[in-house]
Amino acid sequence: MKPPGRRAFSWSGAALRHTVLLATSVLVLLPFVWMVSLSLKSPGEIFQASFSVLPDQWHALENYTAALTAQPLPRFMMNGVIVCGAILILQILVCAPAAYALAKLRFRGREVLFALVLVGLLIPHQVLALPLFILAYQIGILDTYAALIFPFIVSPFGIFLFRQFFKAIPDDLVHAARLDGLSEASIVWRVMVPIAWPAVVAFAIFSVVAHWNDLFWPLIAVRSEELMPPPLGVMAFKNEEAGSDYGPLMAGATLIVAPLVVAFLFAQRWFVDGLSLGAVK
Amino acid sequence: MAVDFASWRRSETAPCPSGGAQARKQALAEALAAGLLAGPAVLLLLALFLLPVLAVFVIAVTDWQFGARSLSFVGLKNFAELFADPVFRRSLVNTVLYVCIVVPATVGLGLLIALLIESGPRLRAFYRAIHFLPYMATLAAMAIAWEALLHPTIGIVNQTLASLGLPTPNWLRDENTVLPVLAVIGIWQGLGFAMVLFLAGLKAIPVDLYDAAEVDGADATLDRLRVVTLPMLGPVMMFVVIVTALRAFEVFDTVKILTQGGPAKASEVLLHTLYVESFEFLRTGYGAAVTVVFLFIVVALTLLQARILDRRVHYS
Amino acid sequence: MTFGVVLRDITKSFGPTPVLRGVSLDIAEGEFLTLLGPSGCGKSTLLRIVAGLETQDVGTVSIGGRPVDALRPKQRDVAMVFQSYALYPHMTVGQNLALPLRMRRLSKLQRLPLLGRVLPGTRALAGTIARDVAQTAAALEIDHLLERKPGQLSGGQRQRVAVGRAMVRQPEVFLMDEPLSNLDAKLRVAMRAEIKDLHRRLGVTFVYVTHDQAEAMTLSDRVAVMLEGELLQVARPRDIYADPEDRRVAEFVGSPKINLIEGRVREAGAVDVAGTTFHLDTGLGRGKAVTLGLRPEAFGAAERAGPGVITGAVRLLEHLGSDLYAHVDVPGQQAPLIARLPAEDDAGPANGGTLHLRPRLDHVLLFAPDGRRLRPAQARRIMPLPLREPA
Fold first, then answer.
1. Domain ranges for chain A
2. C70/A5 CB distance under 8 A
3. Thinking of the domain A72-280, which architecture would CATH place it in?
4. Class for domain B77-313, per CATH?
5. Which of A165, A153, A163 is nearest to A211 (CA)?
6. How many CB pairs under 8 A join A and B?
C-alpha cells in the first residue's frame, strides 16, 4: 500500500529505461563488436555475407600473428608508450613548479604569466602545427622522437589545473614547510604534488589518452615507420592492406584500442574524472 | 589570570628597526624562487605557444612556400584567394554542416541517456561505462572498424539493409551520404562525453528542489523536467553545446583515414584543408591563412564558453 | 477536539537502520508543534512523511481528519519550508510564489508555454494568481523583490520568499524543516518573532523541526522531544524544561546542561550524594542507585560543608555579565558541576578555591538508572531540613 510517490518503484518505467539504454548500448558497442568479430574470422568467412558475431572457423591466431609480425605493430605500441611517457613526465616536471609559483608565491609578472597560460589554453594545438613544423625542421629534429614530444612538454592546461589544486592547499602548510627547512623546490615535490595527487592522476589520464590517440601531429612530425605511434601506424597499415585483408587489420586495430579500453574498465571513475576535466581545455 | 591578548598581539606586529630591509630581502628571495620554478614554463610557453601563434599571423600575409629561400609580403592576398577558392568554401560549408548535425544530436542524445541513467538505481555504472567507451577509444583505429561496418557489401549495415530489401549505398564513396556518415561517427564518439557532463550536472541539482516541486504540485515526470531539471541544467547545457561544437570543428581523424575529403570534396573539412595545404602541398603562406580562419572560429567559441562559465558561477 | 495532524505508530527504516520506531502524535488544529532533537534523531524524516515526500513502512497519517497515506504531497494540502529554502534559482521571486498556484489551478494544457496563454480561462486564472501573489508578497513585505531572482537576495529575504511560497496557497498545515538554521544569529532571533507572528495571523497548524532548543522553547505551543526515532516527551515548553519525563530530555534541554549526580539511597528519606547526604524521598528501597538532576540555577551558596551541601574545588569561573557560572570539581564526580551564581557573588569564589553549594531540594529531579523520571508521592514536598541555616 505505498502511495504513488516518486520513490515508488514502477515496473513500466524501469522496463522502458532498460529497453532504451540497452538499445543505445548495443549501437554504441557495435563498432567494437564488429571489429573484434572480424579479427577472429578468416578472409573467406569475412567476405561471405553473414551476421554471426563469432566465427565458424577460428582464425584469430593467424590474424593476430599477422598483425604482430607482418606489421611492426609492437613497435608502434612501444613508440606510443615512449612518447606518452616522455610527454607526461616532462609536462609534470615543467608544470608543477610553475603552478606552485602561480598559486603560492608573490612576484612581479605573476599576472602576466597567468595571462600567458590562459592564452595557451585558448589556442587549439592544430593552429601551432605549421610554425612548430617549421621550427622542428630548422633545428633538424623532424622524423625523430623529439619531434613527436617537444610541442607538448609544456601544457597550459596542466599548469592551470595544478594551480587550481595548489591554491586550495592552505598557505600555512607552505609556511610550516619553510620553517621546517624545505627549499621551494622540495615544497613543490614533497608537499604540494603528493597532496594534489588526485589532480596529478586525473591529468596523467587526460594527457596519456590525448597523446596515445593523437593522429594529427605525428602525421606531420614523422615519416619513418619505426617512429610511428599507434594511430599513425594503424593508418599506414590500412593503406598498405588497401582494404583487402580485413582480418589482420582488425586484429591490429583491436590491439591498439585495447590498452586504453582495458585500463578504462579497471579505473572507470578516474578516467571519467580525468577526461571530463578536459572540458576546460 | 587572563592573558592580555591585545597587548601581546600588538608587540608582535610592532615594526622592528630592521623590518623594512628584512621584508625587502624576503620578497626578493621569493621572486627569485618564482623565477627559477616558473622560468622553464615561461620560456616554453613563449617558444611553443605565443611566438608560433604570432608566426602564423606573419606567415599568413606572405607568399612563402616551405623550402623556398625568399618570401614577400602580400597583404591579405592569401585570404582573398582563400575565400575565392571553391575548395576552401566547400570545406568551410562542410565543416559548419558537420557541426550543425553533430552538436544537436550529441547534446540531445547525451542528455537523454544521462536522464535515463539517472532515472533508475540499477546498472548506472554499467551504462555509463558503455556509452563513454567510444570517447577514449583510439579514433584512428575505430575509424577502420567503422569502415568495415559500412563496407558496401560485407558491412553489417548494408547486409541488414539488403535483407530488408532496402537500397544499400556505398556510404563513404557517395557524395550525399559521406558527410552525414562522418557526422554519425562524430556523434557516436562524443555522446558519452556529453552524457558524463550532464550526469555531473544532474548530480549537482539539490534534492530539496525536487521535494519543493513535489509539494508545490509539480510531480509528474514532465512537470519535474520543466520546473526543475531542464532549467537547472541550463548552464551545463550551454557548456556542453560549446565543448561539443569545439570538438566538432576539430574533426580530422575520420576524414583523413576514411575519405581524404572525397568524393569530390564532399567531406573536405577545415582541418583537413589546413593539413593538405600546409603539409602536403607545402603552400605555407596559404596554409597559415587557413590556420588563422580556424583559430578565429575556435577562439570565438572558447571565449563564449568562458563567459558562460563565468555566468554559471553567478547562477545560484 | 479536532486534530490537525494525527500520526499513528509511524515506523520507518532506511535499509537495516531503523529511523522511526512507532511514533504516535496528535497535533491539534491551529497548534504550533515543534519536533526537537539532535541531528539524526528522525525528526526530519517524520516531517517528510507528513509531507508525503517519504513513505512510512508502518503506520498512518491523517490530516484534518482524513487519512492521507495514499495521497501524493500535492493532494495533502500541506506546504513546506525547507532548510535550504529550495527556491527555484532560475525563476524570479514572483514566479517562485506563483508556481504552486499555477500547478494547482491551471490544467496541463493551460500550463503549456505558448498555447496555454490563448486557451479560454487562462487569462482570468492568471489574474487571480497574480493577485494572490501580490497579496502574499505584501503581507511579507517582499513586494519590492518580485522581479528579482533568488541569487540576488540576502539570506533573510530568501527565507521570507520561502515562507511566502508556502503561504500563498493557504495550506491546512505548514511544515518547516529547520527554516532558520542558515541565518546568522541576529537574523534568526528576528525571524523567530516573525514566524510566531505568522502563526498567530494564519491560525493554521504548524509543524516545525529544529535542533535548536531556543527556537523550540520560544515558538511552540508544545514541544515533542525526539531521540533515536522515538518521542520521549510531548509537552508545553516550560514543562519540558522543568518537568522532564526522561533523563535524556533533561539532558538535551537546557544550557548549560543539567548536572547529573549519581546517588545511593541510604534509607527512606535520605540519599548519599557526592560525599554528603540529602534529605530526599525517592520511593526506592535502601541501597538502590538513583540519579539526581540539578539545573545550574538550582544551587545556592553555602558557608561551609555539611549535610545537604556539596563541596568542591572551583575549576573555572565564567562571567557572563548577568550571571556567573562556576565549574566545580566534586570528589567522586567525573564531570564538574556547573552552578549559576549571582554575578555580584564575584567576590566569593575564586579559581582553585573551595566552594560550598546548597541545592534547592524542591528543584531536584530524580531519575531511575534506566532514565525514567521518578515521582515519589512526596517528592514535591519540601523536606524540612534539620540543619541550621547559614547565618
1. 11-68, 72-280
2. no
3. Orthogonal Bundle (1.10)
4. mainly alpha
5. A153
6. 289
Model confidence band, residue A94 (pLDDT cutoffs 50, 70, 90) = very high
Interval B236-283: pLDDT, tens: 888 889 889 989 999 999 999 999 887 888 899 999 999 998 888 888
Considering only alpha carbons, which residue of chain B is nearest residue C48? Answer: B211
Domains of chain C (ranges, CATH numbers): 3-248 (3.40.50.300), 257-374 (2.40.50.140)
* Pairing assessment for the beta strands C299-301 and C337-342 based on DSSP bridges: unpaired
- B-contacting residues in A 135-174 (Cβ below 8 Å): 135, 137, 150-151, 153-154, 156, 159
C-alpha cell at B141: 583505429
**Residue A276 Cα, gap to closest chain C Cα (Å):** 25
CB B70 within 8 A of CB B305: no
Give kind and range of the element (H or E) at residue A268: helix A268-277
**Model confidence pLDDT, tens digit, residues C278-295:** 888 877 878 888 898 999
Beta strands in chain B (DSSP E): none
Domain ranges of chain B: 77-313
- Do the chains contact at B215 and C80, CB–CB below 8 Å? yes
Provide the residue type at A48 as one letter.
Q
